[in-house]
């Protein structure tokens, strides 16, 4: 199953960089005065900074649509599609999408924009900051078939941020059963919140449990720990560490991206 990673990203152990979108129409903190032009301008600036820094892929996410919904409104998908469409001609790397936190909406957006992958909470039942979380992987996979998005890869986040699995199950057991029952294209292992380091011991246990299924470190990958994380993980999703001063709310800092990616490229030479 690892073959799809190199086919999609052109490298082993890819770095997927987050392109966080500002609040969108319908979101509580949307800036109606500046409007969608500001949202597009912000996304374009971050995209170009990430690509200039040499990342292997980007993932567009409505990260500032707080507080998140587990079933988004149509305006969110429409707005994200507009943003991606406006800057599509400047996207030079493979890209994915994540409509927080709605699997079917993420797939709809992927189908409409040509995204190569989606990351979502596809399975499990959780008590979360957003209420009871009860996605249905079977429905999501069938939805992918229905909208002709069969080639879109599914990255299952099995340790959701700001949520706890309701059943008393070890993460290794969850990973193993998720792979058996749902056949994900990859698993994402996270810390508690955005920017919180993924526990190395958890990564190791999950990787050992799921065999050939790719495992991504999903949060908290930084310059000082990226080698350690990539020794285990098959790739990483990076957001906060690429921001100015490492601050979640800021723009991407191309210098931070370049230094990080130089370290990653040096590491990959020895694979």
From TrEMBL:
List the InterPro entries: BtpA, RibuloseP-bd_barrel
NCBIfam families (alphabetical): thylakoid_BtpA
Name listed for the protein in its UniProt record: SgcQ protein
Source organism of the structure: Bellilinea caldifistulae
Q: Which protein family is named in the record?
A: Belongs to the BtpA family.
Record PANTHER family: SGC REGION PROTEIN SGCQ-RELATED, ZGC:162297
Name one matching Pfam family.
Answer: BtpA
């Amino acid at each position: 199953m690892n073959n799809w990673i190199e086919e999609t990203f052109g490298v082993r152990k890819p770095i997927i960089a987050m392109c966080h979108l500002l609040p969108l129409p319908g979101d509580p903190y949307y800036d109606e005065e500046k409007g969608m032009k500001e949202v597009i301008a912000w996304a374009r600036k971050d995209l170009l900074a990430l690509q200039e820094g040499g990342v292997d892929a980007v993932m567009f996410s409505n990260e500032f649509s707080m507080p998140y919904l587990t079933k988004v409104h149509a305006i969110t998908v429409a707005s994200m599609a507009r943003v991606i469409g406006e800057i599509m001609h400047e996207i030079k790397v493979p890209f994915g999408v994540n409509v927080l936190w709605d699997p079917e909406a993420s797939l709809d957006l992927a189908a409409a924009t040509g995204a190569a992958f989606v990351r979502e909470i596809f399975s499990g039942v959780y008590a979360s900051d957003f209420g009871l979380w009860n996605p249905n992987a079977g429905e999501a996979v069938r939805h992918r078939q229905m909208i002709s998005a069969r080639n879109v890869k599914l990255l299952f986040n099995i340790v959701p941020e700001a949520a706890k699995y309701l059943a008393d199950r070890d993460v290794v057991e969850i990973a193993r059963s998720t792979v058996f029952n749902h056949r994900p294209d990859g698993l994402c292992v996270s810390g508690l919140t955005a920017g919180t380091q993924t526990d190395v011991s958890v990564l190791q246990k999950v990787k050992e449990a799921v065999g050939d299924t790719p495992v991504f470190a999903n949060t908290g990958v930084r310059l000082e720990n990226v080698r350690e994380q990539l020794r285990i993980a098959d790739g990483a999703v990076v957001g906060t560490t690429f921001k100015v001063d490492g601050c979640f709310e800021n723009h991407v800092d191309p210098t931070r991206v370049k230094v990080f990616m130089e370290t990653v490229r040096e590491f990959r030479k020895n694979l």
